[in-house]
Design goal:
With 379 residues, the protein is mainly α. It has one domain: Orthogonal Bundle (ABC transporter involved in vitamin B12 uptake, BtuC), CATH 1.10.3470. The protein contains 14 helices and no strands. Helix 2 crosses helix 12, helix 4 runs antiparallel to helix 5 and helix 8 packs across helix 10. The radius of gyration is 22 Å and the shape is globular.
Amino acid sequence: MTKLPTWADVGLVPLISLTLAALVSAGVLLAIGQSPMQALTVMVNGALGSSYAWGYTLYYATSFIFTGLAVTVAFHAGLFNIGGEGQAQLGGLGVALVCLALPWPHWSIALVAAMFGAALFGAAWAAIPAYLQAKRGSHIVITTIMFNYIAAALMIYLLVNVLRPDGQMDPASANFPSGAHLPQFQEIPILQGLFQRFGADGQPRLNAEGLPLYQQVPANVTFFIAILACVLVWVMLWHTRLGYAIRAFGKSEKAAVYAGISPLRIIMIAMLISGALAGLMAINNVMGQAERLVQNSASGAGFIGIAVALMGRNHPLGIFLAAVLFGFLFQGGAALGLETDIPIELRTVVQGLVILFTGALDQMVRMLMGMFFAKKGAT
């Protein structure tokens, strides 16, 4: 197969894959008697048409960045970590325990402590499958999938029997103290103007005290931490000795061992970093949005991270862009369910098609593009 130019490999192939996914999605809509243009318009307006809309889009994207990075770090070590869902749920437990432990005086202090708790619990949950892979030869895919279910059962038990306050029926922890509240976008001074509400007369809307009213969105300062995580993962993988060892081991275990790289060390370190990144996702939804630990706090983001990593070509920049796309699909799909009679489950269909064309059928697109460039070169 002809080697594609870098610009085509990085930009054109994903674009063609997305276009194919969009065309098939349009065909599905036509098959159920719906208008593709109406669906596209509603999704774009619902996900990007206002500050309220893109505030939700970026909230979802934040979670997907962390889980996508988690998959990527393990992937570069030749490991397929499918346990991001369970690691994120355990990360939420770490966040809850830290936030409920003290009456935090300021959110910045609580954030640092909660990040440590989330990363520690996520890494600890990934450490067991990593050790089983390195020492016992247990396949990482099987063990991480199994640990997702164990994590879900453990969280239910803890929420019902340990963390649930007396007299509360909802299986959830107590609310976090006010000092653990993370600033949301509408509370950040530099962004407040984007979320200000205006009346029909075009004048700013005020509350009873005469203060401006703002759109309330769940996107919070965790989004900037996610961007920082992208940069740090890029630096670690491509500009450190550890990153070189991880990538060398992922390319060829035999060659890495010959060069003196320890399989046990690389597997454990890569999975610990991967689990820590998945656990950090809980900062966004547990601490930044719900402000308490609830059942199924990961909400499927661990699995979506796999698709984000595949589509992002396991590179932090690609993961960021793919996470925003899936955030668009999530928020736009919710708008479809609210504003049209198109089933909200269609977003799952679209996500599946995106995964199909950017993952399973990626080689088909590359082969066709290779034939095109080979023919163009021959002429």
